[in-house]
Amino acid sequence: MKDKDMYTPDEIKGQTQKIPGKESKMKPQPIYDNNDFKGFERLKGKTAIITGGDSGIGRAVSVAFAKEGCNVVIVYNIADDDANETKKVIESYKGNVLLLKANIKDGTVCKQIIENTINHFGGLDILVNNAAEQHPQTNLEDITDEQLENTFKTNIFSMFYLTRAAVPYLKEGSVVINTSSVTAFRGSKDLIDYSSTKGAVTSFTRSLSANLADKKIRVNQVAPGPIWTPLIPSTFDKEKVDVFGQDTPLKRPGQPVELAETYVFLASDGSTYITGQTIHVNGGEIING
């Protein structure tokens, strides 16, 4: 796909929806698949869990993994229609997929997700901690205890819960990939709690990579910039949606499909000497970290 095939800021103007956002209600919907690319079996025979795999970046990663021969477990919370659509697309590529509707804020539930995956597919090779929530607030004092706790539970506690439960089943060559954010490195004045969780994700990634290095389990992260996903129209007002992505050097928002190959690379044998690292996919913003 070429840059001209992606949406311009004008094409996404005027969209808002209630939380939680649904991909099925977005117009135009995010681009999550490169139909011209059929895959190279780089993940053949492996099994991956992808949180938030029903939509946005998670959907693009789920489809890309399936096209590479990977069994995919999609963990999602609310959007049954989005999850079933992703399942349908994966099956159109002859992929194997398991949908698990779950609240990953709960440590016991996260343990069950891992157990269900092992029982269904017989193993686990890749864990993609991707699900997140955000709630913009102009003032720090407007961030309630409930918002703070929910954001941290979804964005970072779940990574601890899921990875802790997964490690006993991971073997040499297994991979953990976390989704951080450009906000972890430059902050965001209206997303203080969200940015803080993404900073925690970055520290978690670096520390865990060192911890699991002796087991030959690699841990890396992707730090997206402004990507057109359901999170955007469901959490930003019309004015912010209208200019979303225009402040990047490429002058447009990114599409989920533009991140998918990054996750495939980090999950594959093409990145066997990479651990504890961040790959920035942000439209050209220079970030130190």
From TrEMBL:
Skewed-composition ranges (Basic and acidic residues)? 1-13
Q: Which Pfam families match?
A: adh_short_C2
Residues of the region (Disordered) are: 1-30
Tell me the domain of life: Bacteria
The alphabetized UniProt keywords are: Oxidoreductase
What Gene3D superfamilies does UniProt report for this protein, alphabetically?
NAD(P)-binding Rossmann-like Domain
Which InterPro entries does the entry mention?
NAD(P)-bd_dom_sf, Sc_DH/Rdtase_CS, SDR_fam
UniProt cross-references to PANTHER family, sorted A to Z: NADPH-DEPENDENT ALDEHYDE REDUCTASE 1, CHLOROPLASTIC, NADPH-DEPENDENT ALDEHYDE REDUCTASE-LIKE PROTEIN, CHLOROPLASTIC-RELATED
Q: Cross-referenced NCBIfam families, in alphabetical order?
A: PRK06701.1, PRK07231.1
Q: Which family does it belong to?
A: Belongs to the short-chain dehydrogenases/reductases (SDR) family.
Return the protein name: NAD(P)-dependent dehydrogenase (Short-subunit alcohol dehydrogenase family)
